[in-house]
Amino acid sequence: MDVTPNFLIRSVSAKNVNPKRFRVEGRIYYYVTVNIEAGRSSILDDVEMVVYILHPSFGDGRYRVSADRARGFAIDIWTWGFFDVEARLILKQGQKFETISGEVSWSVSTSFSSSW
Q1: Contact, 31 vs 78, CB < 8 A?
Q2: Cα(first)–Cα(last) distance of the chain, in Å?
Q3: How would you classify the pairing of strands 28-38 and 75-79?
Q4: What is the pLDDT of residues 52-111, one digit of tens each?
Q5: Strand-strand pairing, 20-21 and 63-66
């Protein structure tokens, strides 16, 4: 079953979480949700879990797994920049998987407080 054309990777910055710095004078990080969207919601029923392969700068945390169908197999991350991402969709039927690619990006709001 080729599901690749039916899925895409979506990312959005959380509206209720201000960006922050993890170190003094460090980069500004954004709290971002990355998930899978499908042309039809029922197509997600064929997916058991998703393994996201993030940018190498995530180090040991580069591989993230989600089996949360209700949230579109979402993961939440802190990141300072846009990057390419790969997602392996593990299908319920047998040991099959499909791989899709996308970009983690979001709209940067200027309405956050300047305390970050």
Answers
A1: yes
A2: 46
A3: antiparallel
A4: 999 999 999 999 999 999 999 999 999 999 999 999 999 998 778 889 999 999 887 654
A5: unpaired
What domains does the chain contain, in order, with CATH numbers? 4-104 (2.60.40.1970)
d(CA 83, CA 48): 25
Tell me which residue of 47, 27, 58 sits closest to 93, measured CA to CA.
47
CA atoms within 13 A on the CB side of 80: 10
Q: Map residue 48 onto helix, strand or coil.
A: strand
Phi, psi of 44 (to 5 degrees): -65, -20
Sequence length of the chain is: 116
**Bridge partner list, 66:** 50
